[in-house]
Amino acid sequence: MARPQQPNRWVMLGVSMTGQLAGTILVNGAPFLIHHLHTERGLTLTQAGTIAAAPFVGVMATLVLWGLVVDRIGERASMAIGLSIVTVGALGAALSPTLVGLAIWLGIGGVGAGSTNSASGRVVVGWFPPRRRGTAMGIRQTALPLGVGIAALLVPNTVAAHGLRTTLLLIAAICAAAALLSAALIVDPPRPSRVEAAGSGQLTNPYSRDHRLVRIHLASALLVVPQFTVWTYMLVWLIDDRGWSTLAASVLVAATQVLGATGRIGAGWWSDRVGSRLRPMRAVAVAAAVTMLSLGLLSGTPLAVALIVVATAVTVADNGLAFTSVAEIGGPFWSGRAMGLQNTGQYVTSALVPPLVGALIAGRGYGWAFGLVAIFPLIAVPLVPVRGEQSRDQV
Fold it and tell me: Mind listing the pLDDT tens digit for each residue in 327-371?
């Protein structure tokens, strides 16, 4: 029997990151349409925030399903199919004559983007050994802040210069290229046979063993609130409240995403060094609470811009840690579903943040909004199951 193909693991990481990046540009690029929809189309912040939330709803509604698909048909096919759906959603949004149609097509794009979360995570977990997995997953997780950074530069400036349709067509082209790359280069990581897995307990439902996964899911959902508050409203805050130009504000937002990407890699490396994913995650939760409270209290001072830059790095550092831990606990026959549930909780929260925080800003101002979201990472601190953490599970 021929030996299974052994690809370069770093190539697998790069291709999976590219797929995640493309989906991120569509999903997380939508909030950067808020300023255009608010000022040029006359929508309220709440209405514009609702349209921006549409792709998050699409992702949220299908993440567990995509986890099942990944467990059944593999990572390569899942990513190629999912990114093709993202491409169709972006094309439909570009050609839609109505704002309702825009929201629907963005939601469809979000449905496809959900495939990249579990599939790309499984590629990394499957091809990297435990001692390098935290760093590798941290690198993979940089696709999200880097995608947001690219979207921050691409979306508002292209919309201002060439209009909404051109912007969405460009995003569709990026997603189509990523779909082709995934289909051509991804190799599904090996898994043990079901007989071997049954003997080692890997077929057992991990949710029935203990409450670690549930607690990680809840803590991660809470930690998304400050992350998406900053991501969604930093650009609008800089322009409307601080008087920055669109170009200057988008450049700063993009630059802070690079800082956030570095923080994710550092957090993953830290977890490999200390042999724990969850102790660093708890420390990040504490830092996020302190940073957001400080930003809220000092939002009207010259320190505010520096604090929001710090917040963009701190509030994203936990994602790779939680995702890696969930994949390791879930194992090769449950990790797709476990990662799908993990991301579902995060995207439920993500979909709620733009309209609800937008309403809070409209009623109380940016300072109150930034300060109040510090409550959520504070609640997350005791939920992180540090005492129940075991040594790295083999996946």
Answer: 888 776 777 788 888 878 887 887 788 888 888 888 888 889 999
- Report which of 200, 168, 48, 189 is spatially closest to residue 118, judged by C-alpha positions: 189
Residue 95 CB partners (closer than 8 Å, separation 6+): 165
Confidence class for position 2, pLDDT limits 50, 70, 90: very low
pTM of the shown model: 0.74
| Residues 326 and 342 sit within 8 Å (Cβ to Cβ) | yes
